[in-house]
Amino acid sequence: METLDNLNGPHLTAQGLARNACARTELSRTRTCDRPEVWLRLACEAAIVRRACGYAVIVGAVLITINHGDAILAGDVDGLRVAKMGLTVLVPYVVSTLSSMGAIRALRR
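Now predict its structure.
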């Protein structure tokens, strides 16, 4: 099965993403993006993951600096703080993925 990158080329648009992502499923005329297995497959598409990772790195770094910068500078970084930093980076990743999936669903309606 082709990925969205192959279908849309390097300049992926939201409309192209929605049109190609859901259209290739067997139930393309229904709300297939609402089905968990289809939603998960689309959320794992390279274009969505790449976008979410980009936001996670940039926004996560800013949030880590704001929330943990003083502890990092003081050398007070233990396992619990590292876990909190990981969650700090995970939040923008999840928000970006949910936003992308919401845009796909909105375009499908």
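Confidence is low (pLDDT under 50) at residues 1-11, 25-29.
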